[in-house]
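Input sequence (401 aa), recorded before submission:
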Amino acid sequence: MRTTALKFSVTRNSTAKLSLLRNSLFGMTFIALVMAQLLSSCSFMPPPPDDTKGVKDWIVVPVFYATNRAFSGRNGSIEYSEEENTTGLQFGVKNFVVPYPVRTPLDSKTEERMQWQRFNLDHDAKKLQPIAPPANLCSLANSTFNKEQMIAALDAYRKRAGSLESVVFVHGCCATFDTSALRAAKLATHMQVPVLLYDWVSPKGFKNYLKNETLAEQTVDGFLSALIASEKILGAENMSLVGHSMGAYILDHALMRRKPHGLGSASAPGKFRELIMSNADTDAKTFLNHAGDFASNARATRIYFSRSDDRLKYSAYSHGDFHRLGLPGPLAKPLAKVDGIQMIDITDTKTNHELPFWLVSNMHRFGNLGSVKDFVLEKQDSGILEVKRTAAPLAEPSGLE
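Predicted structure, token format:
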């Protein structure tokens, strides 16, 4: 009787454990499927307020780039695939069409010195596929270069534009070459300086999120190599670096490796004009641990975060509920106390996970919101700067897919 009871107890416990294991595996699978759906479906994300419906004024902008993607262009076109180039980085310049900026003043003199060409086009669509720029409006021909040729061409272009300043933009997760270049072009029209895009293989669809994260880690050294080569010619003091989403991870890790590389054996690297981290998809606590060292790379560092960034909420969940830098929670306050860093709360802009182009630009150029009337900037007791809405926001066309 006791033996039978013992066998029954063991069998019952084993069955219970097996059932628990099955339920656990089912739960994990279900959560994974839900996460993939949430991260890949636009239906769960409120659309950004800056679609291109009704936009008529457009600008042709040349974007200089370095990319680790494989070339896929045909018949003279410049295109890049979702595969990595096996022989290293490729370089060039390509023209893109983006909407005329709404909140950032752009006069005819700026358009002329930047060699941007404005034209009128009726475009009645919520989202924009890349528009081929009219050939007669391209001030620079689409071209591929080696590294030295690209840097020389960018240097010549910025000098013709009458400004030594340039911006390096590192895009985020799950984006094609064209989508990333469109963001770079839009950033250029807001910053009103030449932009160098660092583009990396980042397979489309947020179901590829973890794959993108590994690819971002793998491209840090390539980015650092291109950055050091660029700053030797352009000068760190003339350069500002922008990392968006997972691109902020690349920027963070590259700059923490930068000091040993130096620009000369007898001196430390020069300081960049500004470091900009927007919607940063990197661990907030890890960044806080070395935030001072990161900020020492530049004269100013601004970190833009939102308390309602849906993508970063899911990213935090997939990373064990640890805070992301673009959604820092209680870590925003200690980050705001780090010398050289401004923490800027952009929740009220309702840009969700998109780069707040006008805001980043105006803060960079003026140190404030510029001439906008629908937002104000308030400093909290914690030291955090909060962007607060005062009226219904203007539509700001994105020109993005």
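Checked by second reader. The longest helix spans residues 2-40.
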